[in-house]
Each structure stands twice: as C-alpha cells, then as structure tokens.
Specification:
The protein is mainly α and about 80 residues long. It has a single domain (about 5-20, about 25-80), classed as Orthogonal Bundle (Non-ribosomal Peptide Synthetase Peptidyl Carrier Protein, Chain A), CATH 1.10.1200.10. Helix content is about 50%, strand content about 0%. The chain contains 3 helices and no strands. The chain has helices spanning about 5-15, 40-55, 70-80. The longest helix has 15 residues, at about 5-15. The protein is globular and about 30 Å long.
Length: about 80
Amino acid sequence: MTQPDMRALFLEELTRISPDIDPADVSDSDHLQDDLELDSMDILNLVTALHQRLGVSISEADYPKIATPGFAVSYLSDAAGSG
C-alpha cells in the first residue's frame, strides 16, 4: 500500500470515529487530540479500527507514534510492511 493510500485509509477511519472532521482540512501535522479534539476513547476506537483494517496492533506506548496523520502514515506503513 502506498503512503497516499495509507493516508486515505487513516483519514477514512478517523472520520468514522469523528464524523465532524472534514478530511480535506486535515494536515499531516494536525495533532489528533490537540488540533482535532479527539479524546482518549476516540483514540482507542481509532486504534481498534486500524487494527481491524490493517491487522496492525498498536500498543499504548506507541500512541505518540500515531499522534498526527503524518506520524500515523509512517508508523502504519512500516508496521504493515508497506513502508
């Protein structure tokens, strides 16, 4: 999966968790909690959704590695073996 494909998948899951987010307005540097206002339960739901879609387990210690869409795409691409 290419990085643009991974970004699209990530944004798709993000907007399922938080439908008020417009994916066109999300930059790679937007912080999920500080800028996009996801709470801890939203993050957990996002991690669960990403696991179901990609089969990638994200430990709580790795949450900072998915704190922005840019970080998440790199992390998920590496973890899914497509980086």
